[in-house]
Design goal:
Layout: E1 2-6, E2 14-19, E3 23-24, E4 26-27, H1 28-32, E5 41-46, E6 51-53, E7 60-62, E8 69-74, E9 77-79, E10 94-96, E11 104-108, E12 113-115
Parallel strand pairs: 2-5, 3-6, 4-7, 5-8, 6-9, 7-10, 8-11, 9-12
Antiparallel strand pairs: 1-2
């Protein structure tokens, strides 16, 4: 994963963080470190074929106290944690912990996916003890050739 910083003129620097291999429990503030609270324009690029997943809870977290703006260009897949068997709750794919998300843009580009984690399935019931009886008519034991009246 790479961080690129560009100084343009006298303004705040633009920072790009590229996710180039599969990862879990991604934190945007950790990716940008001390630059998270600064005024820089931040961009996260998720490369094609890359999966951001979760070992529990949330796959991609955008924390509060961000300065500047954030653009996420997703060409890969962001997948929330799947719930445990017997009704476990699945996790969010993306969670934003801020009161003002107007300076955050998420571009889900062609071929990219974002999946919330599904809940765990229920436990199957115990099977019945009975067998299966199948009867089709006419049976070889049924001596009548036709059930239709002869006048029909």
């Amino acid at each position: 994963m790479a961080i690129q910083q560009m100084l343009l003129g006298g303004g705040p620097k633009d920072i790009t963080y590229t996710v180039s291999s599969n990862t879990t429990n991604f934190s945007a503030s950790t990716a940008f470190g001390s630059d998270w609270t600064g005024p820089a324009k931040k961009t996260i690029v998720i490369n094609s074929g890359v999966i951001i997943g979760a070992t529990s809870g949330i796959a991609f977290l955008i924390e509060a106290s961000m300065g500047g703006s954030l653009i996420i260009n997703n060409s890969g897949s962001i997948q929330g944690f799947g719930g445990a068997a017997n009704g476990g709750v699945g996790g969010n794919a993306v969670k934003v912990l801020t009161d003002d998300s107007s300076n955050i843009t998420l571009n889900n580009l062609s071929g990219a996916t974002i999946y919330g984690g599904g809940g765990g399935g229920g436990q199957g019931g115990t099977g019945g003890a009975g067998g299966c009886l199948l009867y089709t008519s006419p049976s070889p034991r049924d001596r009548t050739r036709s059930r239709m009246p002869s006048s029909a």
